[in-house]
Amino acid sequence: MVVVRGEGGxxxxxxxxxxxxxxxxxxxxxxxxxxxxxxGRAESPPKPPPSVTSxxxxxxxxxxxxxxxxxxxxxxxxxxxxxxxxxxTAAYSLRHYGVRTARLQPSMIVLHYTxxxxxxxVRSLFAADLPNRGEAPGTCAHYVVDQDGTIHELVPPTLxxxxxxxxxxxxxxxxxxxxxxxxxxxxxxxxxxxxxxQALAGASLVEHLQRRFDxxxxxxxxxxxxxxxxxxxxxxxxxxxxxxxxxxEVVAFRRLLATAP
Length: 261
Ligand SMILES: [Zn+2]
Hints:
The chain is α/β, with parallel strands linked by helices. Helix content is 31%, strand content 10%. The protein has helices spanning 20-28, 30-34, 50-53, 83-97, 119-127, 185-194, 196-213, 247-258; strands spanning 3-5, 74-76, 108-113, 143-145, 151-153, 171-176, 220-222. Bound molecules: zinc ion (ZN). Residues 41-69 are annotated as: Disordered.
């Protein structure tokens, strides 16, 4: 089922984000990669460019100097996104956003939680491609972050999928495995934030996507915030009725992104 895919300098070594040192290392290099392009990350002095620091570690490949963050380990477990589902997605995009395309040029990231306890159950739901609100394609998300911190990529971030009404034309969707078990919806997001491996893996994934697509922290939002986004657009007049990831927990999540060593 799984193929491990490395990206952007991932050296194929031990799992990252298993401890504070790995997190600090990951976050420390963000300012280098972004050149100050994102907010809230300039609390430490700028680091020298990778080409300088890598000279001290000649055994390290130039693509993976020690002070530049490796991409998070992402397990590729793609849904069968065949021509039919792409065509359904393009038709949905035409109806709701006015352009017939399945391609995504992401400028936002929307956080979700799964309302289920296992990765397997949410994956099979997304794989089923069942109509939602009477329309194809089925719902999906680009990534699912499991409770142990495993990051699964279900759909490449350059393809659209249905996770957030009004923002599927601009947003990558990330699901965290978590059910609310009858609690207040904010409780579920708080469980994710309190689960260190899962929260830090999610932060690492978001930072990786921010670097890749130049997405600012303020464009990382929760599903519950989608209707109020400036980018929200739905030509059919649809609105979200989901309550996952409300603003206080999203602000707390963004603080993980902004943490400087
Ligand atoms: Zn959601």
